[in-house]
């Protein structure tokens, strides 16, 4: 998990991110009473939850999604990844700025904007937030049929089948091939790749993270409770052979085959040490422009890497074509 260990969050989030400052637990418990039993009083006298308790964090996520994004139904099994909502929202807002840079400086809104979520997972968090904030239409792919069934229940439970399509990855070992169709065009792709290179590495990292959460949490003293086994996350979510660097390199290589169908490709990159190698891979692939966008993921710094095979004039023409009148679209101004 990348949630902070108190009710305050670093002031490093995107300006349009709804989760600035402190969590308003009074508002959240009004919307989602199930959160109330998990509230506690910190030594400083503030209200918080025990961020080392995965049940509390999952219930907080449910409250945030309901209160801020209108997601009334969000249930995932404990074995699946429970994502930090503020950090996931930051990626969406960063992508909105990326698209805005090609179409008049304002984030484009509405269902004509199409986004491909590579590895959407059981939580479907990016489509839920992206549609709520900008009205975008999403296609989410995953290789795990159980995760897709869980995500489908979330999508259907919230009446979002027109906005979010879920698709099985049919070609094991591939990312875009087998999931993206030749007749489709997407304005941007996103991905939260598996960070670790093995189950052992993922388990070791999880133990360290749990110990840190327990040591710094506002919950009961460490000695008085049993630490959770994990915060969820299965093999494909947490680790893959070669880890994050190999996964994103593969994504870059496959993106060449879809260069004319996608305006911008992107992926989270958790480790800055991977960036030089990924930039070299992008040069070999012939990417025309590459951007590294810094962002906050809870208490840690992260970033996403974006690349395109379209020159700037071609990107402007892309949006003009979508508008249908050869002029960039005029985005609607909403309360984002």
UniProtKB/TrEMBL annotation:
List the HAMAP family hit by this protein, alphabetically: 23SrRNA_methyltr_F
InterPro entries given for it?
Answer: METTL16/RlmF (IPR010286), rRNA_lsu_MeTfrase_F (IPR016909), SAM-dependent_MTases_sf (IPR029063)
Top-level taxon: Bacteria
Query: Which compartment or compartments is the protein found in?
Result: Cytoplasm
What protein name is recorded for this chain?
Ribosomal RNA large subunit methyltransferase F
Write out the transmembrane intervals: none
GO biological process, any: rRNA base methylation
According to its UniProt record, which protein family does this protein belong to?
A: Belongs to the methyltransferase superfamily. METTL16/RlmF family.
Which molecular-function annotation in GO is an example for this chain? 23S rRNA (adenine(1618)-N(6))-methyltransferase activity
Primary location recorded for the protein, binned into one broad class: cytoplasm
Task: Name the EC number(s).
Answer: 2.1.1.181
Any one GO CC term of the record: cytoplasm
Main enzyme class? transferase
Species per Swiss-Prot/TrEMBL record = Luteimonas chenhongjianii
Query: Which one Pfam family would you cite for this protein?
Result: Methyltransf_10
Catalytic activity reads: adenosine(1618) in 23S rRNA + S-adenosyl-L-methionine = N(6)-methyladenosine(1618) in 23S rRNA + S-adenosyl-L-homocysteine + H(+)
Role description? Specifically methylates the adenine in position 1618 of 23S rRNA.
Write the record's keywords in alphabetical order, separated by commas: Cytoplasm, Methyltransferase, rRNA processing, S-adenosyl-L-methionine, Transferase
């Amino acid at each position: 998990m990348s949630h902070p260990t108190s009710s305050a969050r670093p002031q490093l989030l995107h300006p349009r991110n709804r989760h600035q400052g402190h969590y308003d637990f009074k508002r959240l418990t009004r919307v989602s009473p199930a959160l109330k039993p998990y509230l506690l009083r910190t030594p400083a006298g503030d209200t918080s939850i025990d961020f080392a308790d995965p049940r509390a964090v999952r219930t907080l996520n449910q409250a945030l999604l309901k209160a801020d994004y209108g997601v009334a139904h969000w249930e995932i099994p404990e074995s699946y990844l429970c994502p930090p909502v503020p950090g996931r929202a930051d990626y969406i807002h960063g992508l909105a700025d990326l698209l805005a840079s090609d179409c008049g400086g304002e984030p484009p809104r509405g269902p004509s904007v199409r986004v491909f979520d590579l590895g959407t997972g059981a939580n479907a968090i990016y489509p839920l937030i992206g549609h709520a904030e900008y009205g975008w239409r999403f296609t989410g792919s995953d290789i795990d049929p159980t995760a897709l069934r869980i995500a489908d229940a979330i999508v259907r439970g919230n009446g979002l089948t027109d906005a979010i399509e879920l698709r099985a990855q049919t070609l094991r070992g591939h990312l875009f091939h087998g999931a993206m169709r030749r007749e489709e065009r997407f304005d941007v792709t996103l991905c939260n790749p598996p960070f670790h290179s093995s189950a052992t590495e993922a388990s070791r990292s999880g133990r360290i993270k749990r110990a840190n959460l327990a040591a710094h949490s506002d919950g009961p003293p460490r000695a008085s409770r049993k630490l959770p086994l994990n915060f969820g996350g299965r093999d494909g979510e947490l680790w893959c052979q070669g880890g994050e660097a190999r996964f994103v390199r593969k994504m870059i290589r496959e993106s060449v085959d879809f260069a004319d169908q996608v305006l911008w490709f992107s992926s989270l990159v958790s480790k800055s040490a991977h960036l030089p190698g990924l930039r070299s891979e992008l040069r070999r692939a012939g990417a025309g422009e590459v951007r590294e966008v810094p962002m906050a993921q809870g208490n840690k710094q992260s970033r996403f890497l974006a690349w395109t095979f379209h020159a700037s004039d071609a990107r402007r023409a892309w949006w003009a074509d979508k508008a249908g009148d050869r002029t960039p679209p005029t985005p609607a101004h909403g309360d984002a």
